[in-house]
Structure formats: C-alpha cells, structure tokens
Amino acid sequence: MSLSSPSSKHKLLIANRGEIAVRILRTAISFSQTPERPNTISTVAVYTPTDALSPHVSLANEAVSLSRAVDQLGPGQSEGNAYLNAKAILEICKEHGVTMVHPGYGFLSENAEFAKMIGEEGIIWLGPKHDVIRDMGIKHEARRIALRAGIPVVPGSEECVDSVERAVEVAKRVGFPMILKATAGGGGMGMVVCENEEELEAKLGNTIERAKTLFGDGRVFLERYFSAARHIEVQVFGDGQGKVIHFGERECSVQRRHQKVLEESPSPFCLANPGLRDKICEAAVRLCESINVCWTTQELSNSSWTRKTAQFFFLEMNTRIQVEHPVTEAVHLNLDLVRMMIEHGIAERAGRTVKLPLQPSFDDPNSLHAIEVRIYSENPFENFNPSPGVLQHVELDIEKDAPWLRIDSWISTGTTITPFYDPLLCKVIVSDTSREAVLGKLEKVLEKVKIQGPPNNVEFLLSLVRNEVFRDGKANTKFLDSFKFVPQSFTVVSGGLESTVQDYPGRSVGLGIPPSGPMDSLAFRAANILVGNPHTTEGIEIIVVPNVDFEAVFHTTSVVAVTGRELEVKIDDKVVDTWTHLVVPSGGRLLIRAPQSGTSGLRNYLAVRGGFPSIPKYLGSKSTSMGLGGYQGRSLLRGDEIALGDSQPIGAEEKEHWRVPQELVPDYPAEWVVHVLDGPQDDKEYLSPEGNAEFYGTAWKVSASSNRMGIRLEGLDSIKWARKNGGEGGSHPSNILDNGYVLGALNINGDTPVILTNEGPDMGGYICFCTVAVGDRWKLGQLSPGQYVRFKRISWHQSRRLSENCDEWLSQVVRSAKNQERGAESSVAKLSRVELDETPQDPRLLEISQGAGSGRPRAVFRQAGDGAILVEYGPMTLDFNLRARIHALETLIKSKNITGIGTFCPCIRSTVCHFDPLVVSQQGVLRALMEADNELPHQMTDMEFPGRRITFPIVLNDKWSRDAIFRYMKSTRSEASYLPSNVEYLAKNNGLEDANEALAKLVGSDWFVFGVGFYLACPFLVPVDPRCRLVGQKMNPSRTYTPRGAIGIAGVVAAIYPVESPGGYMLYGRTLPAWQTWGRGKDFTKDQPWLLQPFDQVHFEPINEEAYVELEQAFDAGRHTFPTESVTFSMKEYTSFVESIREQVATFKKVQADAVAIEERREEELLKKWLSGKRTSGNQKEVDEVTAGSTPVLSPLMASVWKIPASKERVIKTADEILVVLEAMKTEIQ
C-alpha cells in the first residue's frame, strides 16, 4: 500500500498521555521513517500543566496545551479531567489540521459521543465505530448481543435492576454469591460482591449512587460471582467488511481490586485444558463478526472457571486498545497493532481495503510465551495506595537490544508522579520459547530494574513471580486476596520536628553544592558502629521537641541504634537505652521522644543495619539537601515508607545489647566551648583590637533562627570594626568582594555572626572572622536555640590534635561495641570536656608585598580552618588582571598534581585552596602556593584563557521579579531606596537618566563569569565593558522569595538564581537558570547539572514573557540547547580595549560615585525609619507572673512567636487546637 502521494499526508493527534501516548508516537514516528513511506504522518500531542515535561510532549511534532480545558474545570475537579474534555480536544484537531485521532486507552477511548464527533468532522477515528462503542460499552446490552451471537454469558439478570425486590428475585434464581455491576463501568470500578441476601439489600442503593457519581449512569445489573475464576481475553482485529481474525488469547487472572497486575500469553489455563483455547477464540471471532467490527483492536474478555470441567462465559468487550496489548505482540513476531490501526484507518478513508493476515499464522500457541508485568507507583503493603512523588533515579536501560525484552515506559530520572492520573510507570514484557524460561528472565530483569523514589510494586512483582502457585500456572482472580507480601521496610508514623536522611561525609563537589551530611558526625558514626554498618552508611538525623515525636513501624526485624542527646526511646512501649545496639521486632514501633525539660543538645541519629539501599545517591551522596538527595529531597513525613537492606540480627544478637560505655558518651552542656582557628579575616585590617577582644570574650546565644544552613548568634548590638565600609564590596564594613567560604566559618552578616554549617554557601560577600576546628564541628550539631557558646582560638597543630582525639574516641567506640570493653578514662572519654590552651594567631600566614614598578600585585595567604588557605591578590577592587592571576595560579597548581591538594573556590580577586590535613600539612600547602605564585609572570598581559560564549534569553524587568519585590514590600519592608522598583533604583544609583537606560546598559555588554558557587553552581558575572558595570546594594533585610532564573546585582556583581530561594540582589530580569537538577538536555549531565564555569562569557538576548514561558518549559523538559561558541579571552586585547575607553570609564565612574553617595544617604535615613518603626511595633509587655486562674502553656523549645491564632475569650475544647505558632530553625511549630 502506497501512502506517498500528497493526498495521503496525515496528521495524527494522540488524545492521551503517559506510556500509551509514547507507545503510539513511536509507531507513528517509525511508520513515517520507512523508505516506502517518507514523512507520511506528523503527530500532535496534548497535555495539561503537570504533563508539560512528559516525553509524549517532546516526541510529537507539535504539542498543544489543554489550558482551555483546565480553565473550564469546576471546583474540586482533578486536572486529569482535562483529557476528558471532548469539545476542547476536537477544537484542537480542527485548529491544527488533524486528520486522525488515536484515543489510546482510558479517558475518551470508549466515549461513543466523542468518536461520533470526530467522525462527523471528517477526521479518522482509530477505533471502532461509535455505535459499536455505545452498544458494547453498556454491559447489559453487550450481554444481549453476545447471547444473540450464541456466546455463553455469566448467569445473571437479563435487564438492569433498580429495586431490592427485583435484585433478590434474580439472586434466588441464579444463586449466591452475586456481583453488582455498573453497566457503564470499567477499569475495575463499579463492581460490588454480595455474599448473601442481606448484603445485596444493603449494598444495592450505594452501588447505584456510586455508579451515578463515577459514570453518570446509575444503572446496575447482577451476575453470578465466580470467586476463583480465570480471566482470559482474546485479541481480535476486523477489517470493517465482515472479516475478523484473532491473535490468540492472553490471561489476566492476577488482579488487585479487579484491576490487572500481570498478563501472559498463551494462557496457562488454556494450555492445561486442550481445546478450550479454540472454543474461546472461535466465540470471540463469531461475536465480532456479528457486529461487523471495523479495523481496530478489540478485547473480548472471558471468565473461565473449572472444577472438573472448564466452562467459559462472555464478560465484556473493550472497544479500544488494551494496556496489555504488548504481550500479544510479543508472541507474534513483527506484529504491531497500532501500526495496523493506522494503516487500516488511512486505507478506509481512501476507499481501499487492506487484507488481513491469514488466520493460521496466529493459531500456534506454543511457539513463544510472553509475560507482561505492570510497574506502578503504588504501595502494595498499604492496599496498593498510589504513591505520588519524584522518581529520583530511573534505570530501565537493561539487557540492551535483547530481542526478548520490551519495556514500554514514559518515565525517567526526575519525573514527578502526580496524584491526578493512574500511577502506571512502565510495563515490562519478556518473551521466550517456554514459560519457564520467561519466568527466569523476568525475575532477573525485575532484580535489575531501578525505579527509586516513592514506593512502587517492583518487590511485590518479584515475590509474585517467585510464588509457587503462580509458577505452576494456578493463579486465579482471587489469588492476590491470600497472597502475603510484607516489605522489608519501615513506615514513618511521625517525623518529629525534622528528620532527614544523611550519610557521611556527604558531598564533596564544591561549586556551592552543599556538603550536607550529619551535623554531629561523631554521634552519627557511632550509631553506625553499633549496628555493624560502615561509618559512611546513610542514617536519619532527627530533631524532636516536646510533643513532636519521631515514630516508625518496622515491617521486618531490624537492628537499630539511637545516639545523640539524652531522651526517651521506646520499642513497643518498653523503654530502651540510647547509645545501644537494639533490635526492633517485625511489626514493632520505635518511638523517639524529647523530655519536657532538663536536657541539652539538639539532634539524634537513627542507624539501621544495612542502610536504605533504595534511596539513590545524588552527586555522590544520599544526604538530603535543599530539595535534593535523601528521600524526596525533604524531611520525612507521616506515611513515608523507607526500604531497608539486610537489617536482621544474626545469631543471638536479639538477646545481646552492645552499648557505648557511659564514660564515652559525650556530655551536651548548656554552655559550650568551641575551638576555632583564627581567620581568614579577624585581623586588624577588618577588626579593631577592641572589637577582637570583645568578640572572643562574649558568650553568644544561639538564635531560634538557626538551621542546617547556619547557626545564627546573638550577643552584641554591634561589632567594633577597623574600617568604615567595605569599599567596592559594599557599604557595610562586613562587606567584601565575594570570596570563598569553608564549612564551619563564622560569617559576619552585617553585625550578626552566623556559623556556616552543612547546607551553607561556599562563597559570598561577607567576611569570616574564624573557622571552627574540624575536631569540634560535631558540637555544631548539638547547639540548641537558647544555649550559649564561647569561641576559644587554637593553632593549626592544636586543631590536628583535636581531630586525632576524635579519631581515638571512635576507635574506642568500635572496641567497646565489639568487645564490650569499658572505655578507659582518658582525654577522649568526654569529648565535650576537652579544652585546649587559647593560642591566638595572625590569620595572615604569608604576605608578599606588591613589587615596586613590576605590576605584580600584593598577595596575602590567609588561614581558613584546618584544611584551607584563602589566597588574595591586590586591593579590594574588581580587576580582570587579578582574576586572571587567580586562574593562572589554580591552573599551575593543578598541573603539579600535588598530593593532598583538592578543589579550589575562585571568585573576584581570591581563591580558597582546599587540602586534606591528613595527607599534607598547612605549611606544605603554603609552600606549594608560594612557589607557584613565584612562577607566575609579573603581569597577565600576555595570558590567554579558553572559554565559551553562551547565549541566554532574558526578560527585562519581568513580572516574576516584580512580584517578588511586591511580596517583599507586603511582608518585610515597605520603604527603601530600592523600592518599589529595583530597576529604577539601579538607574538612580548609577546616575542614569531612567530605567530604560539602565536596562540597555545591562544587556549592552557580554558578561564574564568570575566565579561559580554560593548555592548550586550560581554564576557570579561581571560585564566585560566597564561602562556597563552598574552597582547596587543588597536588600536589607533580604527577600524570603526569589524566582528561579532571576538575575540581580549586588555591588558590581550579578548572579543568576539557580532555584527558587531567598536573596538580596537587586532584580532586573529573568533568564533560564544555569542549573538543571536532573541533568536533562545536551548542555547538562546527571553528574554535572550545572552549565557555566569560570572564564565563560554570557551574552543576554532580550525576549518577551510569552517566549520565556515556552523556553522555560523546553528547558525543564531537556529540549532547550543554549547557543554556544568557543572563544579565547585575551588579556592583551582586553587591556587595549579598556585603555581605549579610559576617559569614558572615568566619566561614568565619577557620575556613578556621586549617585551612589546620594542613594546611600537616602537609604540610611529610610533604614533608620524602618528600624525605629520595627522597634515600636515590636514592643512587647513581659509578664513575670501568671494571672490567677490561668494555665501556662510551655513552649517546646526556644523559638520566636510567629502567629497567635488564639483570641481573648475563646473556649479551648480539644488538645488539638492551635494556640500559638512558633518559628525556630526556619520551621513553623504549632
């Protein structure tokens, strides 16, 4: 059949989603790519907002949003109903010149009215005629048609029943048990079993009402219910001219809630009953010929039941392609039912007939055997409840190109499974010459399939195919009712205030990707030691407060340990010890509860033997961080199910209780001493001698605003600085041009100290006074709001001894856990009591003065904790020559491959060199850096750096950024120099005429990538052309919301926000982010989900908001490619360019400086006004005594009052009513 003439060009719309849409599209695409059919069929996909990133949208030639259908949804209607809007889809067909529609299965596939509407518009409907759909879709009518064709039907009512009397009369004639069926039902819904007359009387009314709700048709009929039936289907195909053939049968007896889980062909039941297959297939063909089935696939279901003989009855006809059609295709080589539907549809429209294949070629049931299993995002242990969420890792590319394996899927890593649709993820189809061989291969495939995220049924399917009843071919429709499946997992009952999956040591990527991992790594590692895990194995970091418990139910006997602060731990209501090897029995409940008062510390750790193998690694770690890693990238919630590894005890372990001796268990005091190393910036250049003494002499209070990003401290109203401002870094003395941070650095944000912890940034524009010694970092995990901390300075060598002390403590824990030796009293016995002599140090390890007349800049090498040195070049000014020198230094050091030196964190005029102090000393690294610096030329003029020029779209002064500023004004601060418009502020602050001139300058130059880091590889950009370098302050206080892809300025530096987050930069536009979480698209990979790197150049191309929305969707789906070209940055050419515009730059900077001074004065006054108003509105009356007759309410922890829902004279009726909402650690507590 030739389809190459112009009149045979067709456009196919797939009125469906998910795996069936992908499956149809792949056939349509291959149909068009054969030599005899070049470019015959183009395709159109439809989609709803949550499906915008689905593969069927990407695969189709055109994709059209069902936005109009979504807009028409009523209150409470699911988004999935948009796919049922026949009129909206028909309009899309007409607007886009569609000539064919394939409905797939579900949705509108058996909607006779929709099929009629499509046909009346002259569009080919790839399915049965609408009258066949109508007649066979009404189940009691289908029974009549089957009887007329001489096909046996299940004994039951001849008509629908609408009264109890009529229903009882039928039941007495036929006999119980009976099943009530909605005549318009389908998909296993609308069916209710009645065992006796009383049940029938009780259930009839509800069944009628539910049928009205589900299908808009309340009619029901009765059939005899065979509880141990076999469900067998026949695949048929008709040419519409009275000719029908069959492709054999398939068995679908394994079902839950009357919905299929597994299908196979041929049927084991038919194979065990010779002659039955021929009878069933002959009956199916006879029925279809009686109604003149047209060119399409038909599904004829039969119920076979046997005691001594095998009987079969007609159940229903599915007038559309079935979910399980691939199992039939798998046993007949080169059979493609979708292709046949397309070919016959086109032929019928052209007035031609396509001859059907000869029946004998499909009659042999013994040549191949195939089994299909359906993998669902559902929890088999919880009655197969759907499990929406993110698929964090998908690996289906197994047994590549194996002819015996087929996987029909629509998912990939990062796919979000929503609650709006059927939770089918994929179908696995295995074929071979025998059923035994298929079962063996299927088991191996299911063992290799990796779909990690919310619970799915893969382990359930594995248990199923290993079951002897199923392997013997004896599974019937009741099989799963008695099939016992207990997962190797635990279920979260309560997640406490916060509970996250962490592993040790976390991530080591850098580039602003947080290391994460446990805040108290010693307690975490001790818990793993107690259960016999490697130190690095993932566990759970838990924060509980009074009345907010952590509780979990274990479905398999498991070895666990709880370490950390002192609290109450129970297993099935029995109090057990912390810091002890414990066994939770199968079905046991583990409770971790905070005492009402009297203990210090903050965090606890739960280790389970074998860890959590189904939680995938993200960038090398399973740790939870900022929406990434862990379980769903978040804290654990009620109902979460965490799969376990080999968690069971061995031998007599259930009776043994290994423990860490009490003398080794750390104390958690109310006032802590934390050892720190000076620097990088607590020297006299930044901090006055008085300020230094005052800072280190203060007992700092831990703020309720602390969290895993940073521990905020309260204690001094202001810090005594050695300078008035930060120069080009900013107006506040704490400001600097952005440089790298290290974990544990004590960062000064304004006058507020914040200890940067596991989720903190790795670069920014504030100075860091000192850095917590690695050996004392564990203490940071136990600093609780309201407690106090003092900092004691020690030397680098002392810090190494502190780390060695921790290592020895862990060794003692190992020895005591294995041998039950008591820990000897020693310097390591109580880690929290260890104090070293205070040894202040100058953080400047080395300073090399500027070479007189040589052009060589000053170099300062600063101590940055145990394992890093900050290298600074030149004055605090943005200078391309200084950035080039940093780049040259890094390149030279890397080329030397010095053992122990790791990553660098470069920024404007500095870089942080990280090293492993266990491998190389601080002096060794300093010597290597100094030698490399000596090898660099005095000037960078002749240096050239390869890079890329990448084009980003940008919407200037976009609505999303304006909305972020509007939110800020409503919730945070209403008056500031930069409000109500950041763009207008930038114009004023730089002496420009208006906002348009400011925006023109911001896109008037390419931008140079000075650094990549802070958070999630956020790029720091500076315009190449100095005349376009606008400056702006940071918002004070910062915003709580910034849209992803927003671009803003602080100082002279711009940044592209990688994700939705807080922020303080002045926003002037929105572009695509340079971060792609799941590595989708040609510009990203799963191991490198970031795009930019230092010395790249960015070109911004303005677009409108509508175009941006389309590009953002393509970006998220991995379809966008950034235009990129290779370039070389020549310092000689750049220097020459800058010299040629020197006078223009000087004039621009003069005007700019004057404008900045005006705006700074204005902001100073507005800030004073805001602070004054804040103090006035924040005045609170402190109450020392409780009013007589009142009941005090105890706060579970140190926190801020966020909201007070309670009101005067309100009557509190239950303990569940919320009186006050607190805020602590960025978490609301009710």
From TrEMBL:
Keywords: ATP-binding, Biotin, Hydrolase, Ligase, Nucleotide-binding. The keyword DNA damage does not apply. Residues 143-346 form the ATP-grasp domain. Residues 8-485 form the Biotin carboxylation domain. It holds the Pfam family CT_A_B. InterPro entries: ATP-grasp, BC-like_N, Biotin_carboxylase_complex, Biotin_carboxylation_dom, Biotin_COase_C, CPAse_ATP-bd, CT_A_B, CT_C_D. Gene3D superfamilies: 3.30.1360.40, ATP-grasp fold, B domain, Cyclophilin-like. GO terms for molecular function: ATP binding; hydrolase activity; ligase activity; metal ion binding. It comes from the Eukaryota. PROSITE patterns: ATP_GRASP (PS50975), BC (PS50979), CPSASE_1 (PS00866), CPSASE_2 (PS00867). This is Urea carboxylase. It comes from Tetrapyrgos nigripes.
